[in-house]
């Protein structure tokens, strides 16, 4: 007698459903993302150790009343150092000097860089040599550039500036002592103009030539082409150069130290140099740490807002295209 097997009803046993295709793709994409980011992890860890660990110690020291010339004076004082920072009139004056130095240097560098970029965008004999010579100041180390401006350009007796201005009735002017902040800004402008020039020149060479030719065929003169086509096209490059230049100029220390040492008084001092004075000349570790934290927070807020506006400008331009 043969055995008969009855098949289970269709509803009793359901076939296993394969996992959704979307989850598989997400898993593969995440694995691929970690595979690509893996080689960057050592650099990220090194950056965190080098930058964030010292900042954590700075936060701790900013809550301490600690002067190295008074042994046993170290104790916790909460946010008193921050209150003293905002009450410090010299700190406010130095902050104003820093803003003037950054804004003035960036504006002058952008204007000169734009003019030089417009010059180099034209074909003429020896353009490659001229471009190389104009880039050279950006390749000079900041300390060497500061010494060049202090001893060669602005020296009251042997300086080239006084030599050039002597036929116009200018005597032996001690520019560094009489005009310390403009002297430092002149050095910074000399160094940062090539950077702005290269950035704007890249923008000029990326501009479609057919649009310019069409505008000229329609009767637009050179100034109208520059105002209506060239300048709007260069706006993003100019904004990028201004933001990057301002971020780097916040950390300016060597030019101030080598040319004026912040003097006379604090006339040419900026925030990094003033913090250095409080920490290593006044030995007030708590005050210097609090000033450093305030400077970092203010710089981060301003840089974040500027970069967000800049990225929004780039994204909006691309979406409009």
Describe the structure.
This protein has helices spanning 21-37, 41-61, 80-87, 89-120, 127-139, 142-153, 160-165, 175-178, 180-205, 209-217, 222-249, 254-259, 271-280, 285-320, and strands at 64-65, 75-76. The protein has a domain at 89-282: MetI-like (MetI-like fold), CATH 1.10.3720.10. Helix 6 (142-153) packs across helix 9, helix 11 (222-249) packs antiparallel against helix 14 and helix 13 runs antiparallel to helix 14. The longest helix is centred in the last third of the chain and has 36 residues, at 285-320. Residues 317-321 have low confidence and may be disordered. It is globular, with a radius of gyration of 30 Å. The chain starts with 20 loop residues before the first helix and ends with a helix. The relative contact order is 0.11. Helix content is 71%, strand content 1%. Strands 1-2 form a two-stranded antiparallel ribbon. With 321 residues, the protein is mostly helical. InterPro entries: MetI-like, MetI-like_sf. Residues 95-306 form the ABC transmembrane type-1 domain.
Question: Topology, pairings included?
Answer:
Elements: H1 21-37, H2 41-61, E1 64-65, E2 75-76, H3 80-87, H4 89-120, H5 127-139, H6 142-153, H7 160-165, H8 175-178, H9 180-205, H10 209-217, H11 222-249, H12 254-259, H13 271-280, H14 285-320
Antiparallel strand pairs: 1-2
Helix pairs in contact: 2-14, 3-14, 4-9, 4-11, 5-9, 6-9, 9-11, 11-14, 13-14
Pfam families: BPD_transp_1
Membrane topology: Multi-pass membrane protein
InterPro entries: MetI-like, MetI-like_sf
């Amino acid at each position: 007698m043969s055995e008969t097997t009855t098949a289970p009803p269709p509803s009793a046993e359901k076939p296993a459903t394969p996992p959704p295709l979307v989850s598989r793709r997400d898993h593969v994409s995440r694995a691929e993302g970690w595979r690509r980011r893996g080689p960057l992890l050592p650099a990220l860890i090194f950056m965190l150790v080098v930058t964030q660990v010292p900042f954590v110690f700075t936060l701790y020291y900013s809550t301490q009343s600690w002067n190295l010339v008074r042994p046993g004076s170290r104790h916790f004082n909460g946010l008193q150092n921050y209150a003293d920072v905002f009450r410090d009139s010299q700190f406010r004056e130095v902050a104003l000097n820093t803003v003037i130095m950054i804004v003035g240097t960036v504006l002058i560098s952008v204007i000169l860089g734009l003019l030089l970029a417009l010059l180099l965008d034209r074909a003429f004999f020896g353009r490659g040599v001229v471009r190389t010579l104009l880039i050279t100041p950006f390749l000079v180390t900041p300390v060497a550039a500061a010494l060049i401006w202090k001893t060669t350009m602005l020296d009251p007796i042997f300086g080239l500036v006084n030599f050039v201005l002597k036929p116009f009735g200018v005597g032996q002017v001690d520019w560094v002592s009489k005009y310390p902040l403009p002297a430092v800004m002149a050095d910074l402008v000399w160094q940062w103009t090539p950077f702005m020039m290269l950035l704007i020149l890249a923008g000029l060479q990326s501009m479609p030539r057919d649009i310019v030719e069409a505008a000229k065929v329609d009767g637009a003169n050179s100034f109208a082409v520059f105002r209506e086509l060239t300048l709007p096209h260069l706006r993003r490059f100019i904004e990028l150069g201004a933001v990057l230049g301002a971020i780097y100029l916040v950390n300016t220390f060597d030019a101030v130290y080598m040319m004026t040492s912040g003097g006379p008084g604090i006339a040419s001092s900026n925030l990094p140099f003033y913090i250095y004075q409080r920490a290593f000349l006044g030995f007030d570790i708590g005050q210097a740490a609090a000033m450093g934290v305030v400077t970092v927070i203010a710089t981060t807020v301003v840089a974040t807002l500027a970069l967000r506006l800049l990225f929004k400008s780039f994204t909006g331009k691309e979406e409009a295209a």
